[in-house]
Amino acid sequence: METNVLIDSMECIYAKPHTLTDQPMHYCPGCGHGVVHKVLMEVIEEMGIADQTIGVAPVGCSVFAYMYMNVDMQEAAHGRASAAATGIKRVLPDKFVFSYQGDGDLAAIGTAETIHTVNRGENILMVFINNGIYGMTGGQMAPTSLLGMVTSTSPYGRDAAKVGYPLKITELIAQLPGAYYVARHAVHTPNAVRKLKKAFKASLEFQKEKKGTCFIEVVSNCPSGWKMTPLEANEWMEKNMFPYYPLGDIKVPQAMK
Fold first, then answer.
1. What are 164-176's pLDDT values in tens digits?
2. Domain with 137 in it: what CATH number?
3. Distance CA 41, CA 140 (A)
């Protein structure tokens, strides 16, 4: 009895949002996907829009999102999530619609869909996870892989003379008039998580106001693909990824200035 009283009197400092399912996550240890899921679903729960939200996830590690996000989810073909999200939003304009995509998906096979979705200013949120590699399919080089980065298909490091330079897709789409809010964040520290949460909330508020495309990149790690421990992967990310993909706002509406 005394134990129960003690438990009842304790302050709850964290509770899993109802917008996450009870399905145990099976992402690799240290992967940022699970944290991004939690942050996005917290925002949706706090805004009270879970029953009005539709997410679209394509092929890659991001495809698991429909197992964990307790909102309506639609699976799309590889690279086509923003196109599917466009169709959903146009048919159901009052819904909150987001796509959840990795770099191999959004910045490679889905480059055309990405560019044209943003250029049209489709009123959706695009969440872009950039870990510089094809994580699910074997650690191959992605468009975002850094120069000199060793992957399963670039064992001697990425060579610009042979395959070109890492693609800064976020800076590229920020130049398009349809892009309303564009930012790059991470989830490797509590402060970084808080900043990402603010960006997600702002993006969904802008969608409610029909402002156009909001695009949030999250620079993440891939301990398995990078062949590192989670701690080593975070340190490598800070030392190598952030200088090339600096965190912060890239295109900010006047309302946020």
1. 999 999 999 999 9
2. 3.40.50.970
3. 30
Tally of structural domains, the chain: 1
Position 250 in a domain:
yes
* Angstrom distance (rounded) from CA 220 to CA 193: 12
Using pLDDT thresholds of 50, 70 and 90, give the confidence band for residue 60: confident
Q: Is the pTM of this model over 0.90?
A: yes
Give me the DSSP letters along the chain.
-HHHHHHHHSPP-----TTB-SPPP-SPTT-SHHHHHHHHHHHHHHHT-GGGEEEEE-SSGGGGHHHHB-SEEEE--TT-HHHHHHHHHHHSTTSEEEEEEEHHIIIIITHHHHHHHHHTT-S-EEEEEE-SEETTTTSEE-TTPPTT--BTTBTT---HHHH-PPP-HHHHHHTSTTEEEEEEEE-SSHHHHHHHHHHHHHHHHHHHTT--EEEEEEE---HHHHT--HHHHHHHIIIIIHHHS--EEEE--GGG-
Q: How far is CA 158 from CA 51, 107, 153, in A?
A: 44, 17, 9
Question: 33-47 vs 190-208: helix axis angle to the nearest 10?
Answer: 50
Is 2 inside a domain boundary?
Answer: no
CA–CA separation, 158 vs 151, rounded Å? Answer: 8
Q: Contact, 54 vs 71, CB < 8 A?
A: yes
Q: Which domain holds residue 86?
A: 21-256
Please report whether residue 87 resides in a domain.
yes
Question: Smallest Cα–Cα separation from 72: which of 59, 93, 87, 57?
Answer: 57
Q: Is there a domain that residue 107 lies in?
A: yes
